[in-house]
Design a protein that fits this description.
With about 450 residues, this protein is α/β, with parallel strands linked by helices. The protein has helices at about 1-10, 25-30, 35-45, 55-60, 70, 80-85, 100-110, 115-120, 130-140, 145-155, 190-195, 195-205, 225, 230-245, 270-275, 275-280, 285-290, 295-305, 310, 330-335, 340-350, 370-375, 375-390, 405-415, 425-435, and strands at about 170, 180-185, 210-215, 260-265, 295, 325-330, 355, 400, 420-425. The protein has four domains: about 1-95, Fumarate Reductase Iron-sulfur Protein, Chain B, domain 2, CATH 1.10.1060.10; about 110-155, no CATH class; about 165-305; about 315-440, Rossmann fold. It is built from 25 helices and nine strands.
């Protein structure tokens, strides 16, 4: 660790370019809650001048892991690698109080397991999206639950029957001439809270000539636990996900023996983690092969190109002939983690009569950051409000987000000031392709 720490932190010249991009520094205004401050702390701990106690750990817990500082750093400091090495140490029992440990345990025993999450949400199906929920929120009664449980309630979206079932076949055939064969990861949270995204993604891939393989036994990719330094859980999730694809692809398997050209994901937080399976499961050679095949769906379709037949059938999103303005929100693990910026924009531009608009602070985190908005709701709420104001200033007909956590966070805060419909780029492409033209005003 000392050599790694030295090699990683020595390029830092304390210039401060990271400060304006750092989400935690923006809301807390403390040097210790900035990348530069945390680097100072790590060096001091290594020299024996500082102890990693609960107070020091809290300054690392305030970090969202958005990696905007990595993009901003002119010296190439890999703060992301420092954070990944440090976070497992923060899970030592003495660094958090019993309530914090219990809440984290609840989240890690629920969110990464779709069937457990569905079982917990089933009693809330009638409540989610109801007038009662709206009244309780308006009256501020959810605050009686405490800040963290209140944050969970405030992010709870309407739930429909699709939220409780995975209805995809193992193999969805290509529509028209076959161009390739891809695997698709549903995501543990996305399949429950926004299943329409997965349905739209499969529809768009099929319409563009790709067979889609979806293992029915697939679980969590490990993103939520990976972002919080839960190493053993992450390794187990990663290994299980890889094995779920092995179970359906191969000689005598449900999806046949033909290999996959790529493994695609429509949630950027998942994609960022899956691309690191080679290092997460460093002792397993097949993990490197699997991670090398992982692509964000926008990245893949931009590289492959939309089929001519698909583009020819795209229709405007509004029936009145007006231009539809879309503001695309850059999820941190797409923009900073995977360096994907142009691909989703290029795909959205293919929709007729679309105008893309750009927010001022596109590279600043919305406050979701995996489970950050549940663990630290006060800071997350400030960031969510800032992000909503920034997006609203562009006066869009739509906001488009390619990460489920960002979508829930932004929807919550946009609804507080200027209701604007939010959709994944795949949903907008699918809507355009199928001719489901409608005005944003009529969308909920």
């Amino acid at each position: 660790m000392p050599e790694f720490l030295s090699n990683t932190t020595d390029p830092c010249v304390h210039c401060g370019f990271c400060l304006p991009t750092c989400a935690s520094y923006r809301v807390l205004g403390s040097e210790m809650d900035s990348p530069r401050g945390r680097i100072h702390a790590l060096k001091a701990i290594e020299r024996g001048e500082l102890t990693l106690d609960a107070t020091v750990a809290s300054h690392f817990d305030s970090c969202l892991g958005c990696f905007a500082c990595v993009s901003a750093c002119p010296s190439g400091v890999r703060y992301d690698q420092l954070l990944e090495t440090t976070r497992p140490k923060l899970n030592a029992p003495e660094l958090r109080n019993p309530a914090e440990r219990a809440f984290r345990s609840l989240l890690f025993s629920l969110l990464p397991y779709p069937e457990r999450l569905r079982a917990a949400l089933r009693p809330l199906k009638a409540y989610a999206g109801s007038r009662l929920q709206g009244w309780i929120r308006q009256a501020g009664l959810s605050r009686l639950l405490g800040p963290q449980l209140a944050a969970m309630e405030q992010l709870l979206p309407p739930l429909n029957q699709d939220s409780f079932n995975d209805l995809f076949p193992v193999l969805t055939p290509a529509s028209g001439p076959k161009r390739g064969r891809v695997g698709f990861v549903l995501g543990c949270v996305q399949r429950v809270f926004d299943p329409e995204v997965n349905a739209a993604t499969v529809s768009v891939l099929s319409a563009n000539g790709f067979e889609v393989v979806i293992p029915p036994s697939q679980g969590c990719c490990g993103a939520a636990t990976h972002h919080q330094g839960e190493t053993s859980l992450t390794e187990a999730f990663a290994s299980d996900l890889i094995n779920s694809f092995k179970q359906v692809v191969g000689e005598g398997k449900p999806a046949g023996s033909e290999p996959l050209d790529a493994v695609l994901v429509a949630a950027s937080g998942c994609g960022h983690t899956m691309k690191q399976y080679g290092s997460i499961l460093h002792s397993q050679e097949h993990a490197k092969t699997f991670s090398a095949a992982v692509f964000d769906v926008h990245e893949f379709l931009d590289q492959q190109g939309l089929s001519e037949d698909f583009v020819r059938q795209l229709k405007p999103l509004q029936t009145n002939g007006k231009t539809t303005s879309i503001t695309f929100h850059d999820a941190c693990h797409m923009l900073h983690g995977q360096q994907i910026k142009s691909a989703p924009r290029e795909l959205l531009k293919r929709i007729p009569n679309v105008e893309l608009r750009e927010p001022m602070d596109a590279g600043v985190c919305c406050g979701s950051a995996g489970i950050y908005n549940l663990l630290r709701p006060a800071e997350a709420n400030q960031l969510g409000q800032m992000k909503a104001e920034d997006l609203a200033r562009t006066k869009p007909d739509w906001v488009s987000s390619a990460n489920i956590g960002c979508t829930l966070q932004i929807k919550k805060h946009l609804n507080d000031q200027q209701p604007v419909p939010i959709a994944h780029p795949m949903q907008l492409l699918d809507q355009s392709f199928r001719g489901l033209s409608r005005t944003a005003k009529n969308m909920t």
